């Protein structure tokens, strides 16, 4: 999904490019982790946090830019580095385990609000945004990563849900921006 935003210059496209890049790097390292390559685990755990605490909130920034109030390049980079510093602080200096949930949840609220506001102008894009946000919330808060649903591990359902959610939100940004 990140590749679809390569070369686009708007703030919303840049936010989406960074967001999907962080998520994609984390997913790629996750594939290696689940294949049993344990040597990358410290980097993998860092990228999980980066994707959840910076990447997903950047999706909210993207929607905020084109749906609520345009951001200047300077303000975008200020927000980006602020999220990066908050991630490092709340992960390593003053650990706050709910930070990723709160930051990602706020981003999904922004996605939902903007999708509702844009519904009359671009119905398909708005629906994709709503579906993506709902899938993110369901994957994170309902499915989770521990346990199973019959023979299927929840971690697998979680990742499938996130993959579909990323596709929906990325497609929504391309249609709504």
The count of DSSP E runs of length 2 or more, i.e. the number of strands, is 2
Strand percentage: under 5%
Largest sheet: 2 strands, antiparallel
Radius of gyration: 16 Å
Shape: globular
Low-confidence stretches: none
Distance between the termini: 15 Å
Helical proportion, percent range: over 70%
Number of structurally distinct domains: 1
Arrangement of strands in the largest sheet: 1-2
Average pLDDT works out at 95
Return the structural class: mainly alpha
Count of helical regions: 6
Helix and strand succession? HHHHHEEH
Describe this structure in words.
The protein is mainly α and 177 residues long. It has one domain. It is built from six helices and two strands, in the order H-H-H-H-H-E-E-H. The protein has helices at residues 11-34, 41-67, 73-93, 99-118, 123-143, 154-176, and strands at 148-149, 152-153. The protein has a two-stranded antiparallel sheet. Helix 1 (11-34) packs antiparallel against helix 2 (41-67), helix 2 (41-67) packs antiparallel against helix 3 and helix 4 runs antiparallel to helix 5. The radius of gyration is 16 Å and the shape is globular. The model has no long low-confidence stretch (mean pLDDT 95).
Concise description?
With 177 residues, the protein is mainly α. It has helices spanning 11-34, 41-67, 73-93, 99-118, 123-143, 154-176; strands at residues 148-149, 152-153. Helix 2 packs antiparallel against helix 3 and helix 5 (123-143) packs antiparallel against helix 6 (154-176).
């Amino acid at each position: 999904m990140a590749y679809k935003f390569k070369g686009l210059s708007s703030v919303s496209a840049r936010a989406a490019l960074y967001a999907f890049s962080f998520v994609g790097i984390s997913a790629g390292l996750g594939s290696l982790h689940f294949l049993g390559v344990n040597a990358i685990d410290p980097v993998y755990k860092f990228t999980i946090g980066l994707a959840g605490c910076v990447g997903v909130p950047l999706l909210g920034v993207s929607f905020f830019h084109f749906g609520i109030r345009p951001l200047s390049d300077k303000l975008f980079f200020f927000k980006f580095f602020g999220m990066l510093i908050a991630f490092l602080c709340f992960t390593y200096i003053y650990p706050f385990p709910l930070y990723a949930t709160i930051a990602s949840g706020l981003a999904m609220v922004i996605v939902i609000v903007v999708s509702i506001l844009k519904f009359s102008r671009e119905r398909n894009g708005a629906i994709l945004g709503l579906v993506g946000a709902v899938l993110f919330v369901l994957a994170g808060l309902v499915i989770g990563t521990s346990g199973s649903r019959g023979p299927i591990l929840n971690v697998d359902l979680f990742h499938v849900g996130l993959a579909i959610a990323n596709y929906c939100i990325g497609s929504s940004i391309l249609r709504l921006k």
